[in-house]
Automatic annotation (TrEMBL):
Domain CobQ/CobB/MinD/ParA nucleotide binding: residue ranges: 5-188
Naturally occurring in which organism (per UniProt): Flavilitoribacter nigricans (strain ATCC 23147 / DSM 23189 / NBRC 102662 / NCIMB 1420 / SS-2) (Lewinella nigricans)
Classification lineage: Bacteria, Pseudomonadati, Bacteroidota, Saprospiria, Saprospirales
Domain of life of the organism encoding this protein: Bacteria
Pfam families: CbiA
Family matches, as SUPFAM superfamilies: P-loop containing nucleoside triphosphate hydrolases
Protein name: CobQ/CobB/MinD/ParA nucleotide binding domain-containing protein
Length: 233
C-alpha cells in the first residue's frame, strides 16, 4: 500500500512543484531508496519537462519516476499504482474554483485518495480568505476520508521566508490566525527559508556542486520532519 501525499494550496507560486520534486528525490535516494512515483497532474507539466533534461545528465542518482495523469487516468490506475509504489506524490492541477461545489473540483477529487495534504505558505502569496476557502474544502474531504476509516492529515509549512519584509510579517499573522481558527499544524515553527537556491525543482539542481551546503542542510532538516509526519500514522 502506497502512502499518497499531495502538496497543494489555493494560490500559485508557493513552491508546490519544487517541493514535490525534492521530496520525491529524497525518498528515492539513499538512505531511503523507496519506490516513488511523482504524479504531475498540472496541465503545464512543469516537472515532466524539467525531468526529461535531468535524467540524461546525472549519474549515480536514482531517478524517481514521474508521469502525467489527469484525474480520470489517476482514478483508473490508482489500484495498480498503490501496489507498485511505496509513495505516490501528487502535484495537483489548478486552483480551487470557489464557484463550484467541493466534490466537482479536480483538486478535491485527488484529495479523496490522499493520506496527507501539505500546504505551502510563502510570503507575498496569500490572503487569509483564500487559504480558508481551501482549508474548508480540505476539511470536508478529511471527513469523507474518516467516514471510510482513513484520514487526510493536513499540515502547513513555510517556504522562502526571510523575516525581513512586510510580506514576511503578514505571513506570520496569517499563520497565527490559521492556528487559532483551525488548530492547523505547522512544520518547523521556527520560521526560516528551507532552501536558498533557485530552480530547485530538478534532480540536478539538488545534486550539482554549486547548490549550497546551507540549502542542503535546510532541506534535510525540513525533510526529516516531513518524513516523521508521513511515517507516524
Ligand atoms: N525554497 C526555495 N528556495 C528558492 N526558490 C524556490 C524555493 N521554492 C520555490 N522556489 C522558486 O519559486 C518559484 C515558484 O516555485 P514553484 O514553481 O515550485 O511553485 P508552484 O506552487 O508549483 O507554482 P505554480 O502554482 O505556478 O505551479 C520557482 O521559480 C522556484 O524555483
Ligand atoms: Mg507548479
Amino acid at each position: 500500500m502506497a502512502k499518497i501525499i499531495i502538496v497543494g494550496n489555493q494560490k500559485g507560486g508557493a513552491g508546490k512543484s519544487t517541493v514535490v520534486s525534492m521530496v520525491a528525490n529524497a525518498l528515492a535516494n539513499a538512505p531511503y531508496q523507496h519506490k516513488v512515483l511523482l504524479v504531475d497532474a498540472d496541465i503545464q507539466q512543469s516537472i515532466i519537462k524539467r525531468r526529461l533534461g535531468d535524467v540524461r545528465f546525472i549519474e549515480g542518482v536514482t531517478p524517481y519516476e514521474v508521469v502525467y495523469k489527469n484525474i480520470a487516468q489517476f482514478q483508473k490506475d490508482i489500484k495498480q499504482l498503490d501496489q507498485e509504489y511505496e509513495y505516490i506524490i501528487i502535484d495537483p492541477p489548478g486552483k480551487l474554483d470557489v464557484n463550484l461545489p467541493a466534490d466537482q473540483q479536480e483538486v478535491t477529487k485527488f484529495l479523496l485518495y490522499a493520506d496527507h495534504l501539505f500546504i505551502p505558505f510563502a510570503p507575498g502569496n496569500y490572503v487569509v480568505e483564500s487559504t480558508i476557502d481551501f482549508l474548508k474544502v480540505a476539511l470536508q474531504i478529511k471527513k469523507v476520508r474518516k467516514s471510510k476509516g482513513a484520514d487526510l492529515e493536513i499540515t502547513g509549512f513555510i517556504n522562502m521566508f526571510e523575516n525581513r519584509t512586510l510580506d514576511d510579517q503578514f505571513l506570520v499573522q496569517e499563520i497565527e490566525e490559521l492556528q487559532d481558527m483551525f488548530r492547523m499544524e505547522f512544520m518547523d515553527k521556527k520560521l526560516h527559508r528551507y532552501a536558498l537556491f533557485r530552480n530547485v525543482d530538478t534532480i540536478s539542481s539538488f545534486y550539482e556542486e554549486q547548490s549550497s551546503d546551507r540549502a542542503k542542510r535546510n532541506f534535510s532538516k525540513w525533510f526529516n520532519e516531513f518524513y516523521k509526519i508521513v511515517n507516524d500514522g
